[in-house]
Structure formats: structure tokens, C-alpha cells
Design a protein that fits this description.
Elements lengths: L1 H21 L31 H5 L8 E3 L2 E4 L7 E8 L4 H7 L8 E5 L2 E9 L2 E9 L2 E9 L5 H4 L1 H18 L3
């Protein structure tokens, strides 16, 4: 009787363990987790020029309102025509996890962080970089810097400039009163 009980217990244990390991698991997360508080930027997906106020933009010598172009807002500093910033909010593509799932198809995919939020650099070349930062599980902030003036530091390191601009935007929106 005791042998039968041990065999039944061992069989039940084996079934439980096998059942647990063979059960279909959800897709493994590839991107870093968003550990900072999520920032709700849904309202700016349709109105990206409202992402930063005049005081924030003044840090970049931007004194004129941005213009909406290709779903984003484009700003040009008043002191040069050789530098532009473009920012947009994406709430439909699947967030940072989607970027990591498709990293093999993204030109210049390079992980980064801006204010503890995970992101990537992409499409990098002389004077051009796009930073996409996950500010919530389903939300990306995309900042593109184009620096055509060879004398600008942004031309040499456009990703650092894109991250700096994204950092100002994230810091501003992350601390804005509801």
C-alpha cells in the first residue's frame, strides 16, 4: 500500500511539474521594463506641438511656434537654420516592446535610456538621429534631430542632442500638474 501511495504521489508530482513546464507561456519580454512612472501623453498624439511650452523651448533657442509635419511637430531654433527638432507621440504601435521585437529590421538599433525610461536610437548618420523612448507600456516619444551645419556639436553627436531634447520633454511632461 505504501509503495502505491508513493507511486501515486510521484506520478501526481510529475504530472504537475510537466503540466507547468509545457503550458503555453506568454511571449517573453525583450525590452527593458519601464520602471519610472508611466507618463500619459495620449492627448499629444494628435497635437504634438503642445508637448513643450515656450519656456522649455527657449532652452533650445526656439522662439517661434512649431509646425505640424508628418504627424510630429517641427521646431527650428532662431539662431540657426542648420538644426531642427521634431517630436511626436505614438500610442498605437505597441510601445518600446514592439521596437525590441522588430529590432532586426530597425536601421542602427541601439538601446539607450532617457530619465530612466528605456529607448532606442535609430536611423543614425552624420547630423541625424532618431530617439524613441518608451514612457508607458504603449506609448513612445519620438525625437528626431537634423543638424546640417557642420559647426554644430549636434552634427557630430546628433543622438546626444536628440536624447537631451527628449529628456527636456519627458522631464517637463512627467512633472506637469494634472
Amino acid at each position: 500500500m505504501r509503495t502505491a501511495t508513493i507511486a501515486l504521489t510521484a506520478g501526481a508530482l510529475l504530472a504537475a511539474v510537466t503540466g507547468c513546464t509545457s503550458a503555453p507561456a506568454g511571449q517573453q519580454r525583450l525590452s527593458p521594463a519601464i520602471v519610472a512612472g508611466p507618463i500619459d501623453l495620449t492627448e499629444f498624439a494628435a497635437a504634438p506641438c503642445g508637448l513643450m511650452d515656450a519656456q522649455q523651448l527657449a532652452h533650445y533657442y526656439i522662439t517661434t511656434p512649431g509646425t505640424v509635419q508628418a504627424g510630429g511637430c517641427r521646431w527650428t531654433p532662431g539662431d540657426t537654420r542648420g538644426l531642427t527638432y521634431q517630436a511626436s507621440v505614438d500610442v498605437t504601435s505597441g510601445g518600446i516592446e514592439s521596437l525590441y521585437q522588430h529590432q532586426a529590421t530597425i536601421t542602427g538599433f541601439e538601446p539607450t535610456y532617457v530619465h530612466s525610461y528605456p529607448g532606442i536610437h535609430r536611423d543614425t548618420r552624420d547630423g541625424h538621429c532618431t530617439s524613441q523612448i518608451g514612457v508607458a507600456n504603449d506609448t513612445l516619444v519620438t525625437v528626431t534631430v537634423d543638424a546640417t551645419d557642420l559647426a554644430l556639436s549636434a552634427h557630430t553627436d546628433p543622438c546626444a542632442e536628440a536624447d537631451r531634447f527628449a529628456g527636456t520633454l519627458i522631464g517637463y511632461e512627467g512633472h506637469r500638474a494634472p
